[in-house]
Amino acid sequence: MIRCYLDDQPVQSPSGLDGLTFKKSRHRSFWGWTYRQLGYVDGQGGALTFRETATVDYLKSCYKKAGVQTQTSFRVVDDSQGTLYDGWINYAQRSAGPDFFSVSLRDDAVLTGLESGAVTQQSILPTEQLILSARQLDGAANLTLSADFATVTR
């Protein structure tokens, strides 16, 4: 059975959940899987639509307090597989009516901050040179680095 949670409170599954696709992509600088645990919804304008009255009221009150900066977690849990998705409501892409609240999903703010901080580049100027001798192209290459050059110091 699949269950949904908003800020760790159980809610009825939103419509569009059956079209929720999980996407993980490698971070372009770190090449790890820590970045972009995105969930996106095919069809229905790319949004999850909550229709339960208490949930709609909760989302509206959260949005009223802090606007698009609101932090509301959204988690999808399967009894047999554990947590399927753990992300955040994206209030910047929302629509609301008297009886519904539609939103898209976004990454955790910590991961987004990691990504924005990753654009800072550090340059390291070499102080040593080493020459690698040529090898024949038809044989195996086994290049070794002496211990003197294997340590980077400031």
Briefly, what is this?
This protein has helices at 53-66, 109-117; strands spanning 2-6, 9-11, 20-24, 37-41, 48-50, 73-78, 82-97, 100-106. The protein is built from 2 helices and 8 strands, in the order βββββαβββα. Helices cover 15% and strands 32% of the residues.
Please state the overall shape, judged from the principal axes of the Cα atoms: elongated
List low-confidence stretches: none
Largest sheet report: 6 strands, antiparallel
Instruction: Work out the number of β strands.
Output: 8
Beta content comes to: 25-35%
Q: Roughly what percent helix?
A: 10-25%
Average pLDDT confidence is 76
Can you give a write-up of this model?
With about 150 residues, the protein is α+β, with helices and mostly antiparallel strands. It has helices at about 55-65, 110-115; strands spanning about 1-5, 10, 20-25, 35-40, 50, 75-80, 80-95, 100-105. The N and C termini lie far apart (about 55 Å). The model has no long low-confidence stretch (mean pLDDT about 75).
Question: What is the topological layout?
Answer:
Blueprint: E1 2-6, E2 9-11, E3 20-24, E4 37-41, E5 48-50, H1 53-66, E6 73-78, E7 82-97, E8 100-106, H2 109-117
Antiparallel strand pairs: 1-2, 1-6, 3-4, 5-8, 6-7, 7-8
Labels describing this entry:
two-stranded antiparallel ribbon, alpha+beta, single chain, elongated, 154 residues, 6-stranded antiparallel β-sheet
